[in-house]
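Task 17 of the worksheet. Students: predict the tertiary structure of the chain below and write it out as structure tokens. Keep your answer in the requested format; marks are given for formatting as well as content.
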Amino acid sequence: MSQPNPSDLSVLKHLWSHGRQSAREVHDAIGPGQGWKPSTTRTVIARMEEKGWVSRQDMHGIAVYAAVIDRTATLGGLVRYLARQVLDMDGPLPAALFAESPHLSDAELDELDTIINAAAADTEGKA
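Model answer:
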């Protein structure tokens, strides 16, 4: 699976925090900060739906969207990619670095640590 880009992440973070939302609600919450027009927000969401990252449900004639991909697994993949592919880091990575994130609970931090460092163990096993 490809990694979400910054626009995708903005939408995902909002949906992870607020649950199902219409495109208008997503736009009102994050669009102005991104410099987006409502049509841009709808385009980003539509592309994410095509990728299977958000689901669409019609409720009372309004389309609402929810994040489908797991928050911890997605963030873990991004951290792993940054550390391994961008920064060329080897060895265990400290998930505690993200302890101050408002997006992760203590249980999710533990899961993130497992996700990040399981990939390191896989890499070390191949060497």
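Marker's comment: The CA atoms of residues 76 and 112 lie 5 Å apart. The radius of gyration is 16 Å.
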